[in-house]
Amino acid sequence: MTRMLAAHLFRAAVAAFALSLSFTAWADYPDHAIRILVPFPAGGASDVMARAIAQPLSQALGQPVVIENKPGADGVIAGETVANSPADGYTLLMGAGTGMTYAPLARLQPPYDPVNGFTPIGLVCDAAFFLYVHDGVPARSVNELIALAHARPGALNHGSGTAFATLASLQFARKADIQMVNVPYKGEAPMFQDLMAGRIQFAIASGGGLGFAKDGRVRVLATTLPRRSTLVPEAPTLGEAGVGRVDVVPWLGLFGPPRMAPDTVERIARALRTVLDRPDVREQSERLAFQIRPSSPQELKAFVKDQLETWHQAMDAAGIKPQ
Hints:
This protein is an alpha/beta fold. Helix content is 45%, strand content 18%. The strands form 2 sheets. The protein has a 6-stranded mixed sheet with strand order 2-1-3-10-4-11, with helices on both faces. A 5-stranded mixed sheet has the order 7-6-8-5-9, with helices on both faces. α2 (45-61) packs across α9. The chain is globular.
């Protein structure tokens, strides 16, 4: 046997061994339950969407997928937990624009690097947000709400259950030239309770409140989408109402701790794309005014980079400075 042939056979053996390890790793993962951390309280739209994919994702991966709510600190609590977890694929994050873009930009000392401090797995969806008012507010349109705010400067309370809602509300107030009192909440579920009780007068929030609108407890005046929502076709866009569209986009994506094995990432990413293609999952997302948006891990990483720049520009224009 020549030296060249021996070297060739050696390289082939090494490659075959590495490939066998890869297949073994693929076959071994997962061998026990996986948890997905949601940075919002139970009952909110993001939590409902996470639970909508949990059961079919469990079927696709062959192990239980458990949703764990870890709200607080604009998503930082859940984000830090995942960022500091073992990179074995058993602790994942349902990341949102709140924790992955707003939180790092709003702090002088960012809690983590949203681009390199996580392993991107795949986008899940974009979200439509709506302008809701309490049923007792004497405003049937965006222009009437603006006129009411001008007549009662600083008297209207606005609730925000997410960072996107806070930023969108500031943009709305600036473009409409109105004064309002912002009341922050740890999530949309408690915010909607106060909105329905009349303790706050209006809010920009996700499609999670559309059920309350159907019951007549709140009204929808507009959507932040660039086009009207098929769920509430009578509600104009903010652009149609003459206010101008909101610049940032609310979204959800699945992330893992940094330095996850590529085989594990691909295993989860493929399962996620399969789940997002299911008619029942798409139907559930449409009821929440979410638009399914599957992606590769590489596309999610590029998307996060782009969103960081977009949110930075929007926050700067709104006068939000890091603290």
